[in-house]
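#structure-requests
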Amino acid sequence: MTVFFLSDYGTEDEFVGVVHAVLTAASPGLTIIDLTHHVPAFDVRAGSHTLVRASPHLGPGVVLAVVDPGVGSARRGLCVPVAPPGNGPTFFVGPDNGLLIAAAEQVGEAPIARAYELRRNADVADRGRSFDGRDLFAPAAAALCGGVAPGELADPIDPLSLVRLPGGVVEQGRRSDGRRCVRAEVLWIDHFGNIQLAATAVDAQMAELPRTGTVDIDIDVPDPLPGRIVRRVETFAELEPGELGLLIDANGHLAVVAGQAPAARVLTVVAGQMMVLTW
């Protein structure tokens, strides 16, 4: 079986390697796929979005996700079983801080029906409580891969009690001059500086966003930045170097991009800001 491992641990310290060691010691022959360990530190929402993007492409196994600013506190450790219609992951393991929920429901194509709070191993009490990836989540993930039932590791809890994160903001409307607009949150800036918005291809269709031509963009900040014009395109190759464009990205979201350049740097945009598209 496979463990799909995501964290904000980075790769400069030994944390990822130690979790690997715990997993393989508990379940020899286990396959581990590192989705990423460079989620911004403590950024649970970024980790959740990353899981949502990755989960449709994962096979059977356990998703082990650790972005956990509340480690050592009263927050719960979770095992969330899902029943994917296809061959997707069957368990999500990690903290009860909203990190797992959107991806688990996406994989199961339904609201979460069962959830469990992991029980702690008293044998690790002398190690402190600052490394649950090693001491709580990795052993649980390995056990699940070995065929152990969730009820042997954890106690049932009400799925309605799980912590949930707010969804990305998407609003439709009209400007004072009558033009249509969509106001959408910036969800993610990728390695290339592409700006993924919360608005999806479905949102674009519902708002009747044109497939060709140009769109005005404004960024909502305390002092709004001057508007910029972007061209509607389908591929990066349609853009001249440095030219701004708006396309549907590989995850089905609207994205502001630039030809062979980081659009986020050109526009000085960061995740969490709001962008208004007007046409």
